[in-house]
Write a structure and sequence with these properties.
Growth Hormone, Chain: A, mainly alpha
Length: 504
């Protein structure tokens, strides 16, 4: 085997270190999954420590998801052409550095910047890790095992993160929920050097930087506009100006993608109604689910007075539901096809979210929260397994990577916009309740708690509506046959940009 063969990943013999490489890549995936769940549990404590306002707390989530979702497609192209191993190691070290910056944050601006930096390096690390899995495991049976391990980390890691987040926040400090990534990232990066084999794709190395800038800045302007809407009102000059700028930038992005020879996001992948339905479903799921985790965490810790550890444990039924349903969905997909699983799955999510609108100051976790979690998580497990394979139905080999990555991109972008918008609606509903009852914004006791509950009710109602739209989109647009879904699921294992993380 020549050095050139190793560079391009075109080897005729299995990599003798491939299972060690899988272990390194799995550790990196675990770090990313832990970060998502750990931060959710730590957010109330971080908000108090850094004096973050209610309207601005969503930036801890959206700074990460905007950077990750906005740069994911570019990160995949950079990894392919600059060297997947090299970019993987850079992503690991950068993620560790950003985590240290966040853990040491002295003010909210520093924390937001660290989270955005985490998302940026995550956008380099995630696609390069999956590309490395694809080129490292060339034999179909071994590749299936490798992806199964990777998927198990994505599912099981969420549960680990929930418990770890609770333990670290309660018995150490919320800062360690970010600092814990530092040793993990450094150890994984050092191990990747001698173990992981370098590979690089052939072809054109042009990057669509104008597309990246217009898309990312447009989304940031839109999220900031939603934030300013609560502070200054929807009719304020600042709010309207930001939203207009966002629309202009996003329209420019679409124009650029239609005209450039090397688009970041080829518009042709949206032409098939199956893919369109899966992308729309993923986007609406991001809108509904990311917001749900934010506000349910505040309800558990703020209203029911759960400790951080107890809050993490309270989420375990959700992880169990997703993992169980995903296992069943992978068996039922070849038999029933994706349409009924996706449509019914998102409908189940909408019903569970509607159940959460019944929570109150003194309601029971076992009667209101846990059953709703199970209904949502089971529906999500069915929907996302089917959705991920449907995104690749009928797509050409040259578009398989971007099509599969779009599932995660749409989910992250939907989560960014949804979290910002829902946070604004919740704050507005809370303020209206206090005004109606002639109370101040600093009201405590029953009035203050009921005001917060009113905001949560509005959020869960809107989340339920978003997930209902996802269900309708899947039922009306997805028309793939069973054999097409099976072929797409097999193709997904060969795609270098498959991202299968679920929000948790």
């Amino acid at each position: 085997m020549t050095d050139t063969d190793a560079l391009h990943g075109d080897t005729s013999e299995p990599d003798p270190k491939r299972w060690w490489a899988l272990a390194v890549i799995a550790v990196a995936q675990l770090m990313v999954v832990l970060d998502a769940t750990v931060v959710n549990i730590a957010l109330p404590s971080a908000q108090r420590a850094l004096h973050i306002s209610t309207i601005n707390r969503q930036w801890v989530i959206t700074a990460y998801t905007l950077a990750f979702g906005g740069l994911l497609l570019l990160g995949g192209r950079i990894a392919d052409f600059a060297g997947r191993k090299r970019i993987f190691i850079i992503g690991l070290l950068g993620f560790a550095f950003a985590s240290a910056l966040g853990g040491l944050a002295q003010n909210q601006g520093m924390l937001y910047a660290a989270r955005a930096l985490q998302g940026s390096f995550g956008a380099l690390m995630a696609p390069s890790a999956l590309s490395l899995l694809t080129v490292t495991f060339s034999e179909a049976h071994e590749r299936a095992k490798a992806f199964a391990v990777y998927g198990a980390i994505a599912g099981g890691g969420s549960a680990i993160g929930l418990i770890m987040g609770g333990v670290l926040t309660q018995y150490a400090t919320w800062r360690w929920c970010l600092l814990v990534n530092v040793p993990i990232g450094i150890v994984a990066a050092v191990a990747a050097g001698p173990i992981v084999r370098e590979s690089r794709a052939h072809g054109d190395t042009h990057y669509d930087l104008p597309g990246v800038f217009t898309a990312t800045l447009g989304l940031v302007a839109l999220v900031y506009g939603f934030t300013k809407a609560d502070q200054d009102g929807w009719s304020s000059t600042t709010t309207i100006g930001l939203i207009v700028v966002a629309v202009v930038l996003l329209a420019s992005f679409i124009t650029i993608e239609l005209k450039t020879k090397h688009p970041l996001l080829p518009m042709r992948i949206f032409e098939d109604r199956n893919r369109g339905g899966s992308f729309l479903g993923s986007f609406m799921a991001g809108v509904g689910l990311f917001g749900m985790f934010l506000f349910l965490t505040y309800y558990l810790q703020g209203t029911l007075h759960y400790s951080a550890l107890k809050c993490g444990i309270a989420y375990l039924p959700f992880s169990a539901g997703v993992i169980s349903a995903a296992g069943l969905a992978s068996k039922w997909l070849p038999k029933y096809g994706p349409r009924p699983l996706m449509g019914t799955g998102f409908l189940s999510c909408a019903i569970g979210m509607a159940w959460l609108t019944r929570i109150g100051i003194h309601t029971s976790y076992w009667i209101h929260v846990m059953p709703a979690q199970l209904i949502i998580s089971i529906g999500l497990g069915f929907a996302f397994v089917s959705l991920s394979s449907t995104a690749l139905i009928g797509v050409g080999n040259h578009d398989a990577g971007v099509a599969s990555a779009m599932v995660n991109t749409t989910q992250q972008v939907g989560g960014s916009l949804g979290t910002a918008l829902l946070n604004t609606f919740a704050a507005s509903a809370t303020a209206s309740f206090l005004t109606l009852h002639h109370a101040t914004h600093h009201a405590t006791g029953t009035i203050g708690q009921q005001a917060l509950i009113t905001g949560y009710h509005r959020v869960f109602t809107l989340c339920s509506f978003a997930l209902l739209l996802a269900s309708i989109a899947c039922f009306s647009l997805v028309q793939s046959k069973k054999n097409h879904a099976v072929s797409a699921a097999l193709a997904q294992q060969s795609s270098p940009l498959v991202i299968g993380d679920l929000p948790a």
